Amino acid sequence: MGNLKRTVMVLVLLLSSLALMAETNSLSFPKLTGRVVDQVGLLDKNVARELETKLQAHETASKNQVVVVILKDLQEISIEEYAYQLGRTWGIGQKGENNGVIMLVVPSVRKVRIEVGYGLEGTLTDALSNNIIQTVILPLFRTGNFEKGIAEGTEAIIQVLGGQYQFNTPKKQTEEPPPWWFIFFLPLIFLRRFVGRGFYGYHGHHGGSHRGGGGFSGGGGSFGGGGASGGW
Amino acid sequence: MEISILTRWKASPVVTSSLLIILLTLPWLSGCGINNIPTYDEQAKATWAQVENQYQRRADLVPNLVATVKGYAAHEKDTLMAVTEARAKVGSIQLGKDVLNNPQLLQKFQAAQGELSSALQRLMVVVERYPDLKANQNFLALQSQLEGTENRISVARRDFIQSVGKYNTEIRTFPGRIWHSILYSDMPIRENYEATSQDAESAPVVNFDG
Fold first, then answer.
1. Are A45 and A13 in contact (CB under 8 A)?
2. Which among B140, B142, B151 has CB closest to A225?
């Protein structure tokens, strides 16, 4: 009798631990292969590359990490629930600054969301995110123009974020030509590029089609549900 | 007298050696979870602060929202009144520092927030009947802020539930159980009360038919 009880207990324990494991692993996230992650193949390669370059330039200028994700399916949860967990898992945005933004498009359920990291909630407010979705993205999506919708939506996000950036540093400076001593650094930059390419070539980063500037990874930013969603 | 104490100290190698052992094992102890319970306790408190914070943010939105809706839909008095009253009730609950150790107060707080949620939901349904209001930029901004805040609330609550779960698990399982009985017996298992109120919040949507 005592033996039976014990085996039952052990079984229950085992099962519950299995259930726990299943619960924690229930959500799967795509691999962060670059600033543009396209699971569906919605974007043309060139469009994706262009987008990636733009996002990379924005990050260099402002440290904000903006990522575009086109997801196959939501695994039966809401887009809001998925988006912040994706952002936390990837750690989009710099650690401590939490300045990440994710544009999440899920064609299978016809939903789009702009998920905003804690640190940018004041700049890219819910109202602005909603405005971008309703007035820029959705009208294009509704006519089936996904590439343009995503590109213009991303552009709008960058514009909103850039508004703050320009406020900090006067616009004049960015328009000035590079100073004459810049020429001394040019070889260095090319050298770095060359070395960098060699490095990534060796380590077989060829898999992802959109890898922009090579190894991109999240800076450890966090999300708390800011942003807006919409459907078409 | 002093001398005798000193000699006693010197004369007891047991004391010195046990002190040494304690000193030597201190780093090892922190590695095996002696600090986990207070750490998780702090995390639970921090995530709770975020929950309160987001609820406050919603409460702050309400007066503006009510004023805007009133301008277009003044004769939806009942709905507007319900929102205002629920907002006042939420504001009247004072949460002290020790709120996490006061399940009754927490439940009261949760119930009041739930009432505000359902009142707001009803308001947002009523609003559908006023196209002019729905075209108002100010209202659209407020509406998206409210949606965003509701979403933040659910994220904050999920984080809180998770952190309380972690804290409780630490107390209930080995080796946290031992540390709890030796050092932290004053830190109780916390009620993860929010699970019960979850359905209370979504229920009002169903029975609303306009």
1. no
2. B151
User: Residue A15: exposed, middle, or buried by beta-carbon count in 10 A (0-12, 13-18, 19+)?
Assistant: exposed
Distance CA A121, CA A222 (A): 12
Nearest-Cα distance to chain A for B16, in Å, is: 44
Residue A31: HSE in the Cβ half-sphere, 13 Å Cα cutoff:
8
Predicted local distance difference test score (pLDDT) of residue A165 = 32
Q: What angle do CA B174, B179, B183 make, to 5 degrees?
A: 165
State whether ipTM is beyond 0.85.
Answer: no
Length of chain B: 210
Which amino acid is present at B175?
Answer: P
Distance (Å, whole) CA B23 – CA B42: 26
pLDDT over threshold 90, residue A26: no
Nearest-Cα residue of chain A relative to residue B144 = A127
Strands A36-38 and A65-70, bridge-based pairing: parallel
- Classify residue B48 by burial, with Cβ atoms within 10 Å: 0-12, 13-18, 19+: buried
Range list of β-strands (E), chain A = 36-38, 65-70, 100-106, 111-117, 223-231
H-run or E-run covering B144:
helix B137-172
Tell me, what DSSP letter sits at residue A135?
I
Contacts of B147 in chain A (CB under 8 A): 126, 130, 228
pLDDT in tens, A173-195: 344 455 565 566 666 655 655 55
Give the contacts of A148 (CB within 8 A, at least 6 positions apart): A140
Three-state secondary structure call for residue A148: helix
SS3 B140: helix
Q: Does B151 touch chain A (CB under 8 A)?
A: yes
CA distance A115 to chain B (A): 10
Indicate the burial class of A35 (C-beta count within 10 angstroms; 0-12, 13-18, 19 or more): buried
